[in-house]
Amino acid sequence: MNKRNLIPIREYESFVSDREAAGCITLPEHTFEQLEKFLLLNRGRGDDALELMGLSARKGIGKMITAKNYIGLIAMNDGTMIEILPKICSKTGDGDSRVKRLVVEMLRSLRDMPYKSVQTAHVNVDRMNLFEIFIRMFLDEVFAIVKRGLQSGYKAVESNENTVKGKIVFPEHIKRNFAHKERTFVKFDEFNHNRPENKLIKAALLFLYRKTTSIRNKADIKTLLNMFAGVDASTDHEGDFIKCVSERNMWDYETALLWCRVFLTGRSFTSFAGSEVAYALLFPMEILFERFVALKLKKLLSGNEFQVSVQDRTYHLFDDPDKRFSMRPDIVVRRKSDGVIFVMDTKWKLLSNAKANYGIAQADMYQMYAYQKKYAANSVILLYPMTDMVSDKAIEFHSGDGVTVRVMFLDLFELAGSLKKIYTLLKN
Question: What is the mean pLDDT of residues 296-315?
Fold first, then answer.
């Protein structure tokens, strides 16, 4: 895999096979077929509302594959790497390097994933795809471990020795040493670096050495492999993950092991199957957006003025004869001074003036109407990413029976300014 095999694509852009088509990206026929098989195999995995990519056909063009919902990387067995970036709009532009930095920042909002501690200030994202960026972050973690010193542990060893140490294993001793009185078959604990955590890191380093195309990453992996020369690479990844211990002296391994799980098991967020694909690191943009905004809003609002609940489970749609159809709005804010409640939901959809009702789904409006009634909310707000196809001014819908749904837009590159507008609304 080299640089010429990297094919970037944005959400809502499409691939076609072996032909030119306006607004589409051309893939070699065999690569297109491999990708199609992978998508068909993974249809229906994860959230039913999400789809990896859309499969369609257009007269005069033929089959098309359209990026939808997920961003990240798909590495094909023929060496092609597809990098999917989100369709993000901004008043100040959205170059690929800027988008990549934002994606990494959004990944930090995922729980139980290694991205929460990452920094990209020192990473040259202009020359790296997401996979190489992730490798760089993992290597930084491993270098930090090596600097502090590899943790050692005891490993049970059975061996035929010239001296007695540990315990004699009599059945094996008799079997092996009838004619070798000078030897003793023993079992003992050996103190070395060959513990499961180090074995997993070495396995990940070996895997990445074969996959990286970055000269710097390859050189640093080689350096680290020399540091792990006395460690056996894990061959039973799941078994070794189970053996990993949560001890106070192992805290510095935590993030590195999360990276190991990503690289060795392909668990970026959702696992995907398919022999056509070497590996896939994919993330549902809808969930990334939801968690990122919730994290930022909670950080902004939590304090003396507001009480914030994320993924609130206070109410069900029906309470009799028992509680049915749970309601779980993304963000519920209660103003402490007077108890006024605001309910917000994030939606990763690109609205447009050219679409009926701006492209807002009717089901989303039903949902917000129900939230207002159940929570007796002063205001219910739908939060969408900014798009250049609609004004960034708030939109309001009034039901006539006391329900007002506000639609507001977030500039992810200038999120502080967008959140300030929300803060002002909640405060007043």
Answer: 90
